[in-house]
Write a structure and sequence with these properties.
Blueprint (H helix, E strand, L loop, with lengths): L11 H12 L6 E8 L13 E2 L3 H10 L4 H8 L2 E2 L2 E2 L3 H8 L7 E4 L5 E2 L6 E6 H31 L4 E4 L9 H11 L4 E2 L2 H6 L10 H9 L3 H12 L5 E3 L5 H18 L6 E4 L4 H14 L6 E4 L5 H14 L7 H6 L1 E5 L1 H4 L9 E10 L2 E4 L16 E7 L5 E8 L8 E5 L6 E4 L4 E4 L2 E3 L9 H16 L16 E4 H14 L1
Parallel strand pairs: 8-9, 8-13, 10-11, 11-12, 12-13, 17-22
Antiparallel strand pairs: 1-7, 1-14, 2-6, 3-4, 5-7, 5-21, 14-15, 16-17, 16-20, 18-19, 18-22
Helix pairs in contact: 1-5, 2-5, 3-4, 5-6, 5-12, 8-9, 9-10, 10-11, 11-12
Length: 502
Amino acid sequence: MGISRGALLTDQYQLTMAQLYFRHGLHDRDVRFEHFFRRYPDYGEHEAGYAINAGWGWLGRWADRARFGEEEQAALRSHRVEGHRLFSDDFVDWLGGLSWDALRYESVPEGRVVHANVPITVVEGPLAAAQILETPLLNHLNFHTLIATKASRVVEATRGGAVLEFGLRRAPDEGGIAATRAALIGGASASSNVGISHEMGVLPQGTHAHSMVQVFMTLGEGELGAFRAYADMYPDDCILLVDTIDTLESGMPNAITVFEELKRKGHRPIGVRLDSGDLAHLAVQASQMLDRAGFEEVHIVLSSSLDELTIFQILTQIADEAPRYGADPDRVIGRLLYGVGTRMATSDGKPYLDGVYKLVAVSDEGEWRPAIKVSDTPTKIVNPGRKRVRRFYDRRGLATVDLMSLHDETLEFPLEVLHHHEFGVTRVLAEPDSASEELLEVMSLGAPVDDPAAVGEARKRRIADLERLDPGVKRLVNPHVYHVSVTRRLADLKAKLIAETT
């Protein structure tokens, strides 16, 4: 793809602004930008009450190779407007020496639960470099966080079941690779995407397609012949897709026949896959057929346009329907696995995260001056200045508020805190049971943060954070609103700057 993936993965106005700063001698002035998202994903019929941070590893991978080399510089030198050069030689030469290591970074670690309107990434350092970084930062972090959030909700909906991600075929081009990585951070157990799974240190998994059965049927071997061929090739990794002809009348009986043959040879079949029809009803029936045949440990993999709400509805139906057939619903649900593709890899219902990257402070002769953007829309007015973000936990051990304060503030409890943009809404925060700093310093922006061990740690962080999140906030539909607050001192500073500006 040439230069499109490197340093020129940015918007034109980032470069034109950078040249203006360069011409006015402002390019090396220290500034502070903050990345956050304004609203949780709203999927239409349901909505998120939290998000899962992801993408830092791939941003680091980009920065490790993104330089304004000869090819990039030649492209910029060729840019003309009405016959005149848009970018001057001295500016392009300066870009040739730009290093992302000149910037300082703070970030909420990947895998952590994050909330709307709270900074999750901070960039400080020379203005021009920080400005150019905006587009690639948002490009990487917003999409990863969007998909990791969707994956986490899907996993939570399964009530402890394992989720296989297989959205590569319908994902947006190479965005499918990013979606796989984000889904693994978001809690998916594995993926069918071979390359990125190996990079992340997770063994890829999969079943087979209807086409395999169709081939054997067309050649006269039938569904049973297809199943036998697959089992012979993969006797210890045998999951059979049973709905090509008739799930209960053909697919399941043929699968059980093959499983019995495998068992006699000393192998343990893994499962059957249901990809069409009334999945809840078929799961109940398939579970009973497997149990009667003595295959109590064989899994049932559900697929076909699954998402978190569909899974919730399927499990609700199983709980109601299974007893009518003398089946234990917990037994049926406990053997289910879930293959989730398109709707997770594309974040169906909400295909973007409205993450933004806003200037909040500018250094002037060694002093940090708070910066503000004023808008008629209150939620678009930034909280100015250099800030700290702390998460406080109550006596239950659950997160109760994310609090933004000015960088040099000392907090004393009980503490009055205010809504992050509706400053008339206040509450008193009692002495917390514990607290955590959410923004951690990142020493460099580079590829080593994306090794398999880093992804594994991110997966653990998600589990730990969700255990400390109120169940109401995790609700699939109409989740409880998590508190995001600011201190009185920060609110007063914001009000002062608004008054001075308007």
